[in-house]
Structure formats: structure tokens, C-alpha cells
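Exercise 7. Given the components listed, write out the predicted structure of the assembled complex. Treat all entries as one system.
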Amino acid sequence: SAVISQKPSRDICQRGTSLTIQCQVDSQVTMMFWYRQQPGQSLTLIATANQGSEATYESGFVIDKFPISRPNLTFSTLTVSNLSPEDSSIYLCSVESPYEQYFGPGTRLTVT
Amino acid sequence: AQKITQTQPGMFVQEKEAVTLDCTYDTSDQSYGLFWYKQPSSGEMIFLIYQGSYDEQNATEGRYSLNFQKARKSANLVISASQLGDSAMYFCAMRELYTGGFKTIFGAGTRLFVKA
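Answer.
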């Protein structure tokens, strides 16, 4: 199993600013995933982050809005840029083993 | 096209009874994985159970079992002896392989209410 921590757990940000979310895993993993969960909705994959390469973004998500860093095998950051109220969501990072998927506790972002 | 379908937005069950949460999926892959997760009001995502497409036996984990019908492309979650703490949102998910990796897609979820 993997233990994942995220910082911050929640934040309230003003429109037009940016928030960087950190994700730390207690073991080395090749792939890390970032998801968004809008209020009352399911999870949507934002991007996959591999160490040593550019992140792969899903349709509807772009690097300028959601830049991702993956400096080593245990850490990743997701930045949500130029915030608007529509960005108010829970952001979760996750890692996967062959038969399981582990999520961080999530970061609850509110944009005012 | 919707790949994971959960047709029950909400379900009620009496405490100590069993409940089935429906999930159908669509894929042309031969190798894939199916997952169920629980999300209580706290927001954390809790992994419940996994079924591989080549697994011949239905997966079981304690009170959770997955009724896997491959030909019908369904992967229903059965919770036996429901408890009040089972009240939560439940998500079905499918892992697909693609060039260079894999990704997991989620259904819309079913909110389960357990009545005392």
C-alpha cells in the first residue's frame, strides 16, 4: 500500500491568483495522477505525471492552466493558475499498484 | 461515449440488509481492471475492491463482493449486512491501457443511504 499526503488540505483563494498543491508519497512510484472533483460530481483525470518527462494532459486540460512538476519519484505538484470560481473543486493526487489505486486526502479549493 | 455507467443516483437500504450497486462499462480492450471506491462525506476516496478482466472468480473483500458478468459488461458491487457507516458515495471505475501507460475513468457515482 501507499500513504499519500497533500498540502494544503484546503484553501480559499481570490480570483486571478494561483494555488500550488503538493503531493508526497511514502514510496517511489513511476506514475502519479491528478484528479479534479467538482462539487457533486465524479472524478475527472487532469493529467498523468511521470518522473523525468512532461506530464500528459487529458482533453480539456492544458499545461498553462494546470502546470505540473514531478522532480522525483515521491513528489509532485499541481498548480491551478489564474483562478476562477469554476476552479472551486477538490483536487486529488493518486498512485496505482497493479490491483489498487491510492488517493491522497484531497485539497479543497474555494475561489472567491 | 460514456464508458462507465452507474444508473442509480441514489439508493436506500435497511440496516443489516444486502444492497447491490449497479455498474456497466464499455471497452474494446481484452485486458482491463474494474474498481469500486467509497467516498464518505469527509471526501477521502477509499479503495474497496478490484476485479481483473481475466479473473474467473468474483472478487470479495469482507462484506464487499463484485458480481462480475463479463459478457454483459457489468461489475455490480454487493454490500452484505449493511451498516450505518456504509452511507456514502460509491464510485465504479475502469482502468484501461493505452500507449505509454494506463488511466482510470470513473462513473458518476451512487449515493447510498443506510436506514436504521
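Discussion: DSSP finds no helices and twelve strands in chain B. The CA atoms of residues 49 and 61 of chain B lie 6 Å apart.
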